[in-house]
What we know:
The chain folds into six domains: 3-146, Rossmann fold, CATH 3.40.50.140; 164-207 and 479-597, Orthogonal Bundle (Topoisomerase I, domain 2); 213-269 and 403-473, Topoisomerase I, domain 3 (Distorted Sandwich), CATH 2.70.20.10; 276-398, Orthogonal Bundle (Topoisomerase I, domain 4), CATH 1.10.290; 607-687, no CATH class; 690-721, no CATH class. The strands form five sheets. It has a seven-stranded mixed beta sheet, sandwiched between helices. A seven-stranded antiparallel beta sheet has the order 15-12-13-14-11-10-16, covered by helices on one side. Strands 19-20-21-22-23-24-25 form a seven-stranded antiparallel beta sheet. The relative contact order is 0.10. By secondary structure, it is α+β, with helices and mostly antiparallel strands. Helix content is 37%, strand content 20%. It contains 22 helices and 25 strands. The longest helix has 29 residues, at 154-182.
Amino acid sequence: MGKILVLTEKPSVGRDIARVLKCNRNGNGCLIGDRYIVTWALGHLVTLAEPEAYGERYRTWKLEDLPMLPDKMQYVVIRETAKQFNAVRDLMKRDDVDELVIATDAGREGELVARWIMMKAGWKKPAKRLWISSQTDRAILEGFNNLRPAREYDNLFKSAQCRAEADWLVGLNVTRALTCKYNAQLSAGRVQTPTLAMIVEREKEIRKFVPKDYWIIQAKVRGFTVQWKDKNSEQFRLFDKALADSIISKVSGQTGTVVEVRRDAKTELPPLAYDLTELQRDANRKYGYSAKKTLSIMQRLYETHKLVTYPRTDSRYITDDIVPTLPERLKSIATGPYAEPARKILRNKIKVTKRLVDNSKVTDHHAIIPTEQYVNLGDLNQEERNIYDLIVKRFLAVLNPPFEYDQITVKIEAAGEHFYAKGRIVREKGWKAIYEGQQLEDEGDDEEKEQQLPEIRKGEIVKLSSVSAVNGKTKPPARYTEATLLSAMEHPGKFVEDRDLREALESSSGLGTPATRADIIEKLFDTFYVERKGKEIVPTSKGIQLIDLVPEDLKSPELTARWEQQLQLISRGKADPEKFIRNMKEYASKLVAGVIASNETYRHDNMTREKCPQCGKYLLDLNGKKGKMLICPDRECGYRKNISIISSVRCPECHKKMEIRGEGKDRSFHCTCGYREKLEAYKERKNEQVSKKEVEKYLKQQKVNENINSALADALAKLKR
């Protein structure tokens, strides 16, 4: 019997699977056992070729060469990871390897990683697919006992391939068209641009907004607050100050009659379990984590700690086959603050409903829930603990009964005007007991606040006191945070006024996928189209101008969402991938034509008064990831000059990282606290000091040789400290 080659996506996952499969011997980029060989990619090893692969003319950027529409896309090995690709290819060509198990991430992108490697390496032998939702030893073993033929996932691969090719066709063509047309470093993308368009549109609404004054009339009745409400419109707000004053004069000091005391039984069902987008939203709201950071933490919880299920899911439900595992999952989390609520559910017998279990609403992966792996909370850092806390509490909440309460509404009539108050009496805390003491949702500014109400009866005569008008101003729409932007990307129809368009969008899958949205948002920051102000996302001048320059079609969330819907249908075998690519080629051609025909202009808002020494154009000031630089706006020129570099050297006064500025002998460290030091002076100062390695080496020797000069040892020990 020949060996089985297992291809994983990351070395860490490969090592875990190798341990379970008893592959203990090291090989070249692999781990070897008696039956299995486990190897890994390093993320992607193969990618789509750059435009110059299709012809030397594409090496230079020219409008007349666009659009670039290759008949057949080419694939190349990524240079940085070529060594590992060669190792994987050599393993695939071994005579004693007669089967492959695809064990990359169980999703669209994971399938793409594996299939491109197999295609480039020329794999022709049988292949099977490992499809698991957690990385525990048990899940891995069960997965290997239930391997599926790889051909069952061919449509998933076709969907992933279509996505990659579509992004190449649209992104590269429009980026080159914009850059050449306006001679500026501009980029656009199939999902990136409509996402930016939403941010820009929101900013324009805010800038156009004119606040209006309004007044809310309040009064005290027996220690609780009542609010005036218009009898006809049932609105609390009054936009006429004179009218508000006249109502206050009319009711002040008057008695009123309780004309209605209504008691309504209310029920709030538990929330749904987490998918990735909802988890990213809550993590941003509560902890300020970016979508990308939350995903990174989730990957550690999934791969390293094995405490949660597969993170890149768009489902908020589980399937029937997971239900028998729920008791063990509850036992695994029954520690610390989760012990009592978990044990309570176990004591009362688990009751599952359609809010958790629904096979029809699970595609590739079920909702994010804890695994059966027992948790030691002390093994998690604070960030991991925060995200784990969100997941566990949501899991416990969905397994709890509804929150039940009686809502009390009191209506008082005084001098012909109506006043209202609301309160509640809790009958069953249910799932809300899990979040005791936490604010779950933001309350509105002016809505009737629920309050503790005294015993009050219909027909009772009461006196209105402390009648006053509270002044407020209408507010513009809020800027997006990462939380609200993720919501907008998932349900772009909610942010569109046109009813027909809104309905179309609600039936689509939104912009991007749970797995890609974090990267899309991050790219908008990296390309300087948006910036952060606190939690708010604000478009830059560059971002606003770009949206004015790109063709209208590319800004449309509706069209982009429909493309994503087509990709989903392809993954299920219900749409033609070749037709999709033909449509994307037509789309790319249309976009390029739109850019070329445009009469718009682009203005650099970061232009300096320093001229390029090579072509004479004014240089642009940019804040890059590694520091500040001056670059020439003419890409054909390509001149750039570093102004400052963010170093790893810490300021001796405030301990912040310092910048290196200047050239040659004038290079010096600069800190925001005001500290300055010449680079040469810093080097001299450091050379006078004993290095840490020397200190540590000496102290180790001291432990061995107790007769060493103690005075010198003491001096070195102090230096180390």
